[in-house]
């Protein structure tokens, strides 16, 4: 199924039911007075984060969602039945905005989270509500209020602990295939990854994390070049970025350092907060070099980038170095979680290095 991460839909809450105009007409009770009941309330519309839904593709098919209207009141002071609320399931990680105002209404980041997006209209009053000492036979009634109508923009940001970052053909898809059960397309041409892929990386018993592979970034991605601008947002929820760099590009004129700097520049343009996130350097395709050449080239890249954080020399194709990388990532995530629990809501300094 194609990954769909943006959708627009229209929601309409139910209208309130009309109030009743009625008078008691019983034997031996002349002039019984008004007994018209109120109308029922219209149903409201809620979004609910549900597990098992991975895309917003359903909203490309069904674009209008309506809750039930309230029923009108009746005699004997009977209130009309209220309309049922409508609960729309959406993927976990969905951000909801009002399409007309641009206001962010909510972020459904956990299973079971609910967000009211359109309130149902109140039922109208029946004529018994209007009786008084001077108005003993009221014929007024409330028509019921209309339910809210709203056009929503839904944006799905994948929930992952670790995000893979790099230019096309850097080996991100090969890496996630090597360490998880995810099977993104791999080929010898750029932009084989057209939508994000998630993979669960198991490091040991009850020790695992989620890794996200997004389409490759090119220079100008923050302005819309290539595919990156649509998918950079998926990295905003990650706790750690793995900057994958091709250490042995097929074109001798390709400079890995220029590629690395271009990626960092695009991150800063898109989101300074994302650029400041912990980011590790992963030098891929070392199987194309001898062990000595690989280490020498890795040291040279790290030196010229003035990078002081963790760096890993791996081969996604052969699996070399991937186990050590996953173990280090798992330890980092566990330390972060422990620090967060110790400090409660106060975020701590991760201390991870950043490429220049």
What does this protein structure show overall?
This protein has 356 residues and is of the alpha/beta class. The chain folds into two domains: 6-156, GTP1/OBG domain (Spo0b-associated Gtp-binding Protein, Chain: A), CATH 2.70.210.12; 162-343, 3-Layer(aba) Sandwich (Rossmann fold), CATH 3.40.50.300. The protein is built from seven helices and 14 strands. It has helices at 58-61, 172-179, 228-231, 256-270, 272-275, 291-305, 322-343, and strands at 6-12, 45-50, 64-66, 86-91, 94-98, 104-108, 114-118, 149-156, 162-165, 197-204, 207-213, 240-246, 279-284, 311-313. Strands 10-11-9-12-13-14 form a six-stranded mixed sheet, with helices on both faces. Strands 3-1-8-5-6 form a five-stranded mixed sheet, with no helix packed on it. It has a three-stranded mixed sheet with strand order 4-2-7, with no helix packed on it. A hairpin with a 5-residue loop joins strand 5 and strand 6 (104-108). It is rod-shaped and about 110 Å long.
